[in-house]
Amino acid sequence: MSEKKKMELTRLQGIIAIASFSAGVLIACVCLFFIEPLGEIASSAISIVSELLVLCGAILGVKASYDIKFRKFEAELKDVIETEKKIVEKTNL
């Protein structure tokens, strides 16, 4: 997979993480505090849906954050290696 596609995938994961986290919080707030149920809806059913959405957002958010930090570390490492190679080449001349 190319570097550009990896960045797009990481960005997509971040967007999905934010969306699912926001949806979980929104569902929990609206359904539990603002809307009277039309029938019998257990609050635990609403809670588990919102908690699962928040969990999904957290997991994807952590993965996206890790991917970004790993790419930055990889780029810094490549820069250090190239700098050391240039220093070695200058000393060998």
Q: Please trace the helix and strand order, writing H or E for each element.
A: HH
Q: State Rg.
A: 23 Å
Low-confidence stretches: none
Mean pLDDT metric: 78
Mass-distribution shape: rod-shaped
Count of helical regions = 2
Structural class: mainly alpha
Distance N to C terminus: 38 Å
Which percent range fits the helix content? over 70%
Write down how many β-strands occur, each being a DSSP E stretch of 2 or more residues. Answer: 0
The amount of beta strand, in percent, is: under 5%
How would a textbook summarize the main sheet? none
**Domain module tally:** 1
Give the SSE layout:
Elements (H helix, E strand, L loop, with lengths): L2 H32 L8 H50 L1
Helix pairs in contact: 1-2
Characteristic terms for this protein:
93 residues; mainly alpha; 2 helices
Structure explained in plain terms:
The protein has 2 helices and no strands. Helix 1 packs antiparallel against helix 2 (43-92). It has 93 residues and is mainly α. The mean pLDDT is 78. It starts with a helix and ends with a helix. It has one domain (3-92). Helix content is 88%, strand content 0%.
